[in-house]
């Protein structure tokens, strides 16, 4: 099979045009083409009046070797099948622990289950249906359940999300493909395997994590819900080497294990503190802070797609924006949710944080994204690995108060923010955040340098997307959890730098940013755990 890249066709081209373009590119007669399939389809909208679809095709042809030798743009289709590096020998009884049932923990557990290791998965939250009720209780009634919310519970942080499933990580072993295949097997639409920017929206994610649970349990794995890990049991060899011996949970139960995957996500602040107290190597990591911004989706569609705004093949338009401010700060858009809503993403009482989500259809009125400013540990105002958490909490508390201390969020019109006055009313763009917003002055819940950088960035973004700095665009604050505040260092074989048998993984450990990359990291770590359990050597 040959891989043909960069095959460009006009948007809305007739179906047979793809085969014709492929034959033309390969320079062969139709009889020599045995078959072909679309591996990837994206679009190039840089020229709004001539938007193109861009295909990557896998083609089966006569005399592949001859074509490969003749055309340097062609390559053999790589073998992308997932191959576990270890498997449990018959009668193997030792079981690995996986802490966290987010995309990282789920993919690690699923891979370990497929290898025959019957993992035990511990999660502080609840099964996804119960968790959904708790999450909606915050959005509808302003009632937070600290152990069951947008951040905690089955499916992890991305369950109530836009379900964007792409990433720019290096993925030599094609683990990303396997994650997508597992998602399709669990009920995701097959198109996620071919679209360059697939997304599935929140309802399908709920169904998928249930299917994944059924598969893991069918393979002998076991879940324990409402089971918060509160301590790590560590033993020391005579030579000082530290080894995991198990974990302790909030109800005092001790579970012995030599191999523990730590996939707790970026909001497990109490767990980070416990790990630090137990001497697990970790450091503070750069963060970002900012707000969610909402515009009419139609404005984004027109700016991106011109006359093709509303085209079904293109769907709702997204954007990615970056500005380097004169005070040295980088401002960028993050987790853009076309046709979606801004959501309350809190997990701690009295601390307010925003995020975004959408349904598969992406047909809500507003586009939203985080507009955030990059920070380094030098900005945290404190020393030590946990300093970023203190910084996040401080600004989340400010936002809670500015919103009225009842889970409404502070919101401000862009026109008011740029003019330096508080908002007293909102305009044409209605904020989607539930349980509601309070017109406010967002500069009271953001550091001054972030405000200055954002004031410079918004008009600059409007040069790329006309109307981006429109008076009535609405900003809702604050966005503090775009990534983990800590990095829990890994060394040889994906294990903790100083604690054998502990495998820090996913977003919380600082090795992923998003659903797909968290799943990929889960697969990588599962290989390491499989090798650790059986004594196989982890391939380089
Ligand atoms: P998490 O998903 O955070 O999972 C961690 C799990 O660990 C949780 O289930 C938690 O309950 C559990 N846990 C924590 N501490 C303990 C403990 N002590 N004991 C037991 N269990 C514990 N990413 C995208 O790629 N696309 C998107 O569209 C997208 N949208 C998002 C929208 C929202 C509202 C949010 C909040 C996030 C979104 N993200 C999105 C980010 C994405 O969800 C995360 O990157 C991803 O979930 C990280 O996966 P993870 O498995 O590493 O951690």
UniProtKB/TrEMBL annotation:
Residues 97-125 form the FAD-binding domain. Gene3D superfamilies: 3.30.70.2700, FAD/NAD(P)-binding domain. InterPro entries: FAD-bd, FAD-binding_protein, FAD-depend_C, FAD/NAD-bd_sf. Residues 286-482 form the FAD-dependent protein C-terminal domain. It holds the Pfam family FAD-depend_C. PANTHER family: FAD/NAD(P)-BINDING OXIDOREDUCTASE, FAD_NAD(P)-BINDING OXIDOREDUCTASE FAMILY PROTEIN. This is FAD-binding domain-containing protein. It comes from Plastoroseomonas hellenica.
């Amino acid at each position: 099979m040959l891989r043909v890249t960069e095959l460009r066709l006009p948007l809305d081209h007739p179906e047979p045009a793809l085969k014709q373009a492929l034959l033309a590119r390969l320079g062969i007669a139709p009889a020599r083409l045995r078959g072909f399939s679309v591996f990837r389809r994206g679009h190039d909208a840089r020229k709004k009046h001539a938007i193109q679809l861009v295909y990557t095709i896998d083609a089966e042809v006569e005399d592949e070797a001859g074509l490969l030798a003749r055309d340097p743009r062609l390559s053999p289709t790589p073998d992308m099948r997932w191959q576990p590096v270890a498997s449990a020998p018959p009668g193997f009884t030792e079981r690995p622990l996986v802490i966290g049932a987010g995309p990282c923990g789920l993919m690690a557990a699923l891979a370990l289950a497929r290898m025959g290791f019957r993992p035990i998965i511990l999660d502080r939250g609840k099964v996804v249906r119960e968790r959904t009720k708790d999450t909606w209780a915050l959005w509808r009634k302003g009632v937070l359940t600290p152990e069951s919310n947008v951040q905690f519970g089955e499916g992890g942080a991305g369950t109530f999300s836009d379900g964007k499933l792409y990433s720019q990580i290096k993925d030599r072993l094609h683990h990303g493909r396997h994650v997508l295949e597992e998602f399709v097997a669990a009920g995701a639409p097959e198109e996620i395997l071919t679209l360059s920017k697939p997304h599935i929206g929140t309802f399908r994610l709920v169904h998928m994590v249930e299917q994944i649970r059924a598969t893991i349990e069918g393979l002998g794995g076991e879940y324990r819900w409402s089971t918060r890990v509160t301590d790590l049991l560590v033993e020391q060899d005579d030579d000082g080497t530290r080894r995991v011996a198990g974990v302790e949970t909030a109800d005092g139960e001790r579970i012995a294990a030599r191999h523990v995957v730590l996939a707790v996500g970026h909001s497990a602040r109490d767990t980070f503190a416990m790990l630090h107290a137990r001497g697990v190597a970790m450091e503070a990591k750069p963060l970002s802070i900012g707000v969610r911004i909402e515009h009419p989706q139609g404005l984004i569609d027109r700016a991106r797609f011109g006359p093709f705004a509303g085209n079904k093949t293109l769907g709702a338009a997204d954007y990615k924006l970056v500005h380097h401010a004169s005070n040295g700060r980088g401002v960028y858009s993050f987790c853009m949710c076309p046709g979606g809503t801004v959501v309350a993403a809190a997990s701690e009482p009295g601390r307010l944080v925003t995020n975004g989500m959408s349904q598969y259809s992406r047909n809500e009125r507003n586009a939203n994204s985080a507009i955030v400013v990059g920070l380094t540990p030098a900005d945290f105002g404190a020393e030590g690995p946990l300093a970023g958490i203190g910084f996040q909490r401080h600004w989340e508390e400010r936002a809670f108060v500015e919103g009225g201390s009842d889970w409404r969020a502070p919101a401000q019109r862009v026109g008011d923010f740029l003019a330096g006055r508080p908002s007293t009313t909102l305009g044409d763009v209605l904020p989607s955040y539930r349980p509601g917003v309070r017109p406010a002055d967002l500069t009271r819940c953001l550091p001054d340098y972030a405000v200055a950088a954002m004031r410079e960035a918004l008009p600059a973004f409007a040069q790329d997307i006309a109307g981006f700095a429109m008076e009535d665009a609405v900003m809702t604050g604050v966005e503090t959890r775009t990534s983990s505040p800590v990095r829990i260092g890994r060394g040889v074989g994906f294990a903790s730098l100083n604690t054998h048998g502990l495998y820090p993984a996913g977003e919380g450990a600082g090795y992923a940013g998003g659903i797909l990359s968290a799943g990929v990291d889960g697969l990588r770590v599962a290989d390491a755990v499989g090798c650790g359990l059986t004594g196989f050597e982890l391939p380089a």
